[in-house]
From TrEMBL:
Keyword Amino-acid biosynthesis: no
Family to which this protein belongs: Belongs to the unc-5 family.
Protein name as annotated: Netrin receptor UNC5
Keywords on record: Developmental protein, Immunoglobulin domain, Receptor
InterPro entries: DEATH-like_dom_sf, UNC5A-D, ZU5_dom
GO cellular component: plasma membrane
GO molecular function: netrin receptor activity
Main location: membrane
Amino acid sequence: MLFREYYSDLHAYEKLKAELSQLLDKQHCEKLGGRFKLKPEDQHIIQTAEEPGKMLMKILDETELIKPDKIIDLYKGLKAIHLNKVAKVALEYIDMSTRKHAKEGEQYNENSDVISKREFQSTRSFKILQEEEYATLDIQRALKLSFGKLDLARRILLLAKEAHEGFPLFPRSTLYKEQYIDQHGGEMDIAGLHLVVPANALHTGRIISLWVSNDPAIKGPILKKSLRMSPVVKFGPEGLTLHKPVSLSIPHCAFTSSIQTGIDVYSGVLQTDQSVKWSPEKKHLSCSMTTNHLEIEAQKPCLIGLHVPYIPKMKKRVCVLPIVNISNMGDQFTLHLWFHNDEKLEHESIIHEEVYKNKGLAVHRPVSFVLKSMGSTFPVNIVCSTPQCTSDPKLVNVDTDNLWLQNRLKCAFQIHNKGLRNTVNLRIESRNWTFGTIRFQLHVELKIENFRRADQIESPFQHILPQSIVESFAQLRKDLSYHLQEGECVQLANMFRLSQNVVMDIEKHHRPGAFLLEMLTKNSLISATNISLLEHALTEQGNDECAQLVREFRRNNPIVQATTCP
């Protein structure tokens, strides 16, 4: 009954802490801190805090000196420093908790078959998360926020941890995406990758995640003089059970032929020291290759890389990974290209075969990259952000030394065009500077209507937020609409770059604040899990009263911070 007791006591426990914190002054806190043998630095923090009682309760809670089932020590401490009235409040909580547990015990005996199963699942979830070395109080709160669901509680704990520590495996050149997929299946797309989860592959809804990286710091299962021919892809989460295999399409840049030999698929496991243990994967992964993609059928979560062995005097290509980001302005895209060789190869193996006939020819010449717009109704102006950019905005020369001998190169091209609403097709073409022959071509299709700004990305938890959070957000909108004046609403609309038609409607509306917040919510510019931009805008505007309302909402609803996607 361990978890059931924690879960039922948590609300009363939080209420007790809030009540006690208002009854304790600095002198009381100092004496009580001495009884609990707090560190000098903790005592200093308490004494210098605006609300010393609240800070004392927070420190005692975080250090687990008090817990829902451990209030008796606090009661004894209050009695020892002669705070009898305050101690009476703690005693009332202890009596109430004892009676409640006794009543629950009677109900448990009457309905043992039903409760036994529920208790087993709750206790099992609690113990599993304890074994994963999460703090006890964090587990209690995560299980409460997730209504006891293990997977969702673990995700909340992971997101809260990642917000402070970051994800260590792929520190650079990385994209991450997660999506809620239920038993009906679904699809995910990121950086040219396409994941298909068929119907009935999952028995219940799960958060599915994809990491994509071409970071050379990731050490793969590459022998000397071998090439990585695809980005490193991590499909998860680990421990996910699939009842049907999922399909994963990964772009590659290897030459393909009818006889597909020398191509291995490796699955990796992250070790405790953040290294990756790779092994050839044949049982749970099957693959086939097309000209541009590696098609994977996976029966379990995996970390995948495609590699080919080095064969002297054979054409090679570098790995090219296009990743597109949209700017906050909404009218500028940045196309990132990562060119990567895992090993320093001989010049003869990476330059066109004609070099073999010209041994004395210098091969350290630039490689030209030509980017062209094809079939778009809008012209595309491409500007390179690297120093190698020439006067022609569509032509970039990259020094061969940088590209080949340093093993990797990152180019970023900014694509400017206000009002893009169509699909833009780009052809990226690499030519040998000396011979003019084409090294490789890469076709990129940008589906403009599918892009969203980073501040518009919604968490998958948006669909399963507790009702209390939803109601609290509705109350926040109501309070803000009451305080916002017409001029402030117009200024905020311009700061969020709403259309002029919306600005004009705000000026005419009899409740401009309510109308503005409705438009911001409708356009996914604010939500219960994405409110920080509004707080920044109000602060910049000098509207401290409204900004304080937003800060109070965030402070009273910690799930807002915990469930924001990376």
